[in-house]
Amino acid sequence: MEDHFSGSFYHTADRAVFHSLMFGWIDRLFNQHKLVRRFSVFWAMITVSLVIAAVFLNMADVTTPVASVAVSVIGLIGTVFGFYFTSRSRDK
Which has the closest alpha carbon to 73: 92, 86, 55, 91? Predict the structure, then answer.
């Protein structure tokens, strides 16, 4: 009796079903549910919040390099919002 996985990763029919399910799932996540846009906004907001909290908690230890990094991280949210609104307007 032949093993199901012998010779190739999947048989041709199994491979076609696998690819259609996976690419359909990926297409729904990225295009229909806007996963990348929402995740990038969430990630930027968390990052900016953590950096600002760390700077404000140690306000006495803030030096010029720390202030430069904090301002750069705050600029990150502007970049992400620009990406979000550009992608959103393209969808309409």
Answer: 55
